[in-house]
Amino acid sequence: MIIVACLIMTNIYPVINMRTMLYESKKSEMQNQESVIASSLAPLGKLSADDVEKVMYLIGDMNLTRIIITDTSATVLYDSSDNEGNKGKYALLPEILSALEGKSSFSYEFTSEATKSRASQPIMYRGKNLGAVYIYEYSTEEAELVMALRGNLGKISIGVFVLAILLAFFLSAFLNGRLRSIVRAIKGVAAGNYGSRIDVKGNDELDELSREFNALTDRLQKTEELRQRFVSDASHELKTPLAGIRLLSDSIVQNDNIPPELLREFVVDIGQEAERLTRITEKLLELTRLDVKRQEIKNAVDVGQVINESMKMLRTLAENKDVTVGCELEDNCIIWANSDDIHQIVFNLVENAIKYNVVGGNVKVFLYMKESMVNLIIDDTGVGIPQEDLPHIFDRFYRVDKARNSDVGGSGLGLSIVKDTVEKHGGSVEAFRREVGGTRFMVSFPCYKEDDHA
Ligand code: ADP
């Protein structure tokens, strides 16, 4: 619409301007011509047809189409195109009448074929009106000029209009295409496909928008991964104390003649596991509330003591599987850690050693100090881990033989949580194949030094 309005303006304005210019120049030109005629006739004092004829003969036609000279009664004294014998007749043209009243006049008529200019003026001599001069010009030149200008402007305008429409069409098709791809990507993310990205090639505003969108979806994807990881880790962490409670209650149920002291001990242990469960739940709630790294509560932890507590819970599992569990624990193996985390590590490793063992197999737990490190070794005589799987068993959701393990019902998360937790406490964990068969897990922590944590 704006382009069309501009084009109309550029078509009309120059034509109007040109016509005004032509009008002005024609007016002054004709007034000059009239003045020349009037001033040439005025000295005659009184106008007669013959005298006028003589003067006009000397002046010539001045390239005018018609010149009429009248006396004060509007009687024609001279007519340059006197084909019909107008001389002596009245010329009652409005221009002549107004000139006889002492007023000059000028009119300009424009048609597409020609311009018609008319001018009149009184012939004054010593304040007396002697008659009137009327001149008329018919010209096709100016009309042709204006029409050519109009025609050229029209053609240029049509060209500009077509070009503008084509350009607008291609530009909007191009922009629409890009906007469509952005909308497609947004819909993808809205439908849960966090991997949907927009191709960014240039540097304009849409590319900037796309880059921002991609950065946003990157963050969304990471948050989603973290969320999924959090949910699976959280449920696994909750599983450990729940399994403990289950195993302890199984021990009570399966032993008919359980001594009251032992029963009491088991119930106390169940209570402790419930407390651990509460602590873990609180820790998880805290994690969801705070996006910052949680300040871990750490103490000097006697690892041997934690192992003994974990063993109580795992005993029933070992008995059910007919697996013997033995411990060789050095005293005073103390590290700076969170006791729930250490329990989680020991429980997971020993539980695996029992779970993936054979009927009648053995599990042996060693704890000792060597070169300012506390080492924990869990040996089993179980099914073992194939060499090619060893580098992957600490990966999340990695399970060695899914068919073999389906009856055990694990999630493949335990060892990855063990590794994360061990590393969080500055330790390391490794798995080996034992020459005698079965698996060895070895965990090392820097031992507790009072000066470091004073
Ligand atoms: P889950 O036991 O829940 O499947 P883990 O991360 O604890 O997950 O263990 C990963 C895999 O490593 C297990 O599926 C199992 O195949 C193997 N694995 C772990 N510990 C042992 C072990 N002591 N003996 C043999 N295989 C083991």
Molecular structure report:
With 454 residues, the protein is of the alpha+beta class. It has three domains: 2-146, Beta-Lactamase, CATH 3.30.450.20; 205-289, Helix Hairpins; 299-453, Histidine kinase-like ATPase, C-terminal domain (Heat Shock Protein 90, 2-Layer Sandwich). It is 52% helix and 19% strand. Strands 2-1-5-4-3 form a five-stranded antiparallel beta sheet, with helices on both faces. Strands 7-9-10-12-11 form a five-stranded mixed beta sheet, covered by helices on one side. The protein has a two-stranded antiparallel ribbon with strand order 6-8. Helix 1 packs antiparallel against helix 4 (141-190), helix 5 packs antiparallel against helix 6 and helix 8 (339-355) runs antiparallel to helix 10. The chain is rod-shaped. Bound molecules: adenosine-5'-diphosphate (ADP).
The total count of strands amounts to: 12
**CATH class annotation of the largest domain:** Alpha Beta
Structural class category: alpha+beta
Calculate the terminal CA-CA distance, rounded to whole Å.
81 Å
Mean pLDDT: 88
Beta-strand content estimate: 15-25%
The CATH superfamily title of the largest domain: Histidine kinase-like ATPase, C-terminal domain
- Which shape, going by the Cα principal axes? rod-shaped
Helices, by number, come to 10
Main sheet, how many strands, which sense, barrel? 5 strands, antiparallel
Q: In percent, how helical is the residue content?
A: 40-55%
CATH architecture classification of the largest domain:
2-Layer Sandwich
Strand order of the largest sheet: 2-1-5-4-3
The stretches of 5 or more residues where confidence is low (pLDDT under 50) are none
